[in-house]
Design the sequence.
């Protein structure tokens, strides 16, 4: 055990006070998502050093759809949509807090994205996937354009996108269920991806 930090009265786990925590690829930073107020601060996503000393807040929003990876310049970065309204994809450099738009919302669409940067041997990329937002008339929301895809995003500010795969998800009201989210994850080399699919409700 390198370091410990306690939060008396707070419990950890999905849906609890502390939702999740993750360490950066370099081992220098820890990101914690708080779903409850703590230390006089509101819920949000926060950065700590490897000794678990508080550094700064990264976001005032839920960070469960983000991930920590390495950008094209070799920096540890936190990657997540800016907010649920615009879904613009941003990276935040952990060393100094510099924030950069990686992909505009007009290209990402709006589809409950999940981010994965598990491709440790392929720095400079992150992977996104999402499930469709469905309108009341059972049609797929036009803002959910990439909802049936796994996309690789270059983390260099150029907005370069590479389509990895189709996730084959059925549209319709039933597809609003969170359990149908593909939640794609790449392998360490970025050569393969794994995701969940209902195969268009093929049975």
Sequence:
């Amino acid at each position: 055990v390198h370091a410990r930090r306690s939060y008396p009265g707070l419990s950890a786990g999905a849906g609890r006070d502390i939702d999740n925590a993750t360490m950066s690829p370099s081992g220098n930073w820890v990101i914690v998502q708080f779903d409850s107020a703590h230390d006089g601060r509101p819920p949000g996503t926060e950065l700590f050093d490897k000794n678990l000393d508080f550094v700064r807040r990264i976001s005032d929003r839920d960070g469960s759809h983000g991930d920590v990876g390495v950008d094209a310049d070799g920096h540890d970065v936190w990657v997540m949509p800016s907010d649920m309204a615009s879904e613009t994809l941003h990276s935040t450099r952990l060393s100094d807090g510099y924030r950069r738009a990686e992909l505009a919302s007009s290209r990402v669409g709006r589809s409950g994205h999940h981010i994965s940067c598990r491709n440790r041997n392929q720095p400079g990329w992150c992977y996104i996937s999402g499930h469709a937002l469905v309108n009341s008339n059972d049609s797929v929301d036009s803002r959910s354009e990439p909802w049936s895809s796994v996309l690789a995003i270059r983390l260099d500010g150029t907005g370069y996108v590479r389509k990895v795969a189709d996730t084959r998800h059925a549209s319709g009201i039933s597809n609003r269920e969170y359990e149908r989210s593909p939640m794609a994850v790449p392998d360490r080399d970025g050569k393969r991806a794994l995701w969940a699919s209902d195969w268009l409700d093929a049975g």
Remarks:
- The radius of gyration is 17 Å.
- The mean pLDDT is 80.
- The first strand starts at residue 18 and ends at 23.
